[in-house]
Prior knowledge:
Helices cover about 45% and strands about 25% of the residues. The chain contains seven helices and eleven strands. It has two domains: about 5-90; about 125-340, Immunoglobulin-like (Sandwich). It has helices at about 20-55, 60, 65-90, 95-110, 145-180, 185-215, 340-360, and strands at about 5-10, 15, 140, 215-220, 230-240, 240-260, 265-285, 290-300, 305-310, 310-325, 330-335. A hairpin with a 2-residue loop joins β1 and β2 (about 15).
Amino acid sequence: MRLPRFLGKKRGHRRTGSQVWGSFGEAVFYAALVAAGLCFAGLLITGSLGIGQEATGLPWARWWLWLVSLLIPGALLAFGAAGLVRIVRGWGKSEERRAAAEGLANLIESMAPPEDGSRRPPGVPACEDLVNSPGTILRYRLPIESPESWTLVGMGLFALLWNAVLGVLAVGAGLDLLSGRVEWVLLAVLVPFLAVGVAAVVLFVRRLFLTTAVGTTQLEISDHPLLPGRSYDVLLAQGGSGVFVSLTLTLEVEEMASFRQGTDTRTERIIVWRELVKEWKDVQITPGVRFETHVTVAIPAGAMHSFASEHNAVRWRIVVAGRPERRPAFTRVFPLVVHPAIGDTHAGLQSLAAADEVLR
């Protein structure tokens, strides 16, 4: 039997690695994790049972020790077993076959005309979630995709979960002290846990204060979805207080691509087109009174429409960036959906119908 080669075809100045040896190396790594998890779990159980024969009830009373100790072997077993299952399911299969098994049919279905009878062209993302909120002055209020909001949510969840674990350990230490026992190991663990928990709460409160102090940003638009070659009225409403050194509104097109690099899935994003719509300098905002202004956003004729697939996407968006005088700068993103021009839409639907007739 001939073993697979470590190096495959030559690609310029480099050679591609063997897929078989790569999968075998992954399998060995995950198997080592499973073995380590089983070893740690076995040592923990046998050691605790041995101590339990000498001092009845002592190991089982230290429930916090079980909680902390079982996290390591449990995580190793779960991670290793999941990796082995993934390797076994994909062994000997090409990238194309794995892509088909993971949802190529769904990708083809997404390119078909929508079943709800709408006139949305194939491959263009739906905008139902972008038009379900009416505006106060204009027709629609656009939803916001703020990176600061996700950062705030992540910091809050981390602080909550970390301090919940800290509370469980602190209750265990308190019960031990009340019963006359002093667990020095538990007290030593509590000190760094307490420091991290306090720091997480302080950072979360600081981020929350900065986010609320800047104020909310709302954007309303006269129509949606958008079409190339047309102009739309946009209302910008910025809350907060104090002086904004600058406040800008830009129209951008972002291209996104997801690809496999080894065993990792990477996503690359790049701004392929940007147009400054309006910029304001030294904006004074009074507490309780929003800064409101109307601008006109024009979609260039012949522009690329919005597009979404499994690995690629073209996204239109309006970006509002502000720089307060005494606070950190912020960026708020408002997604848009741009349909193809009317002639391009009919041509695309006709070609799709013709292809469907040929397949039948």
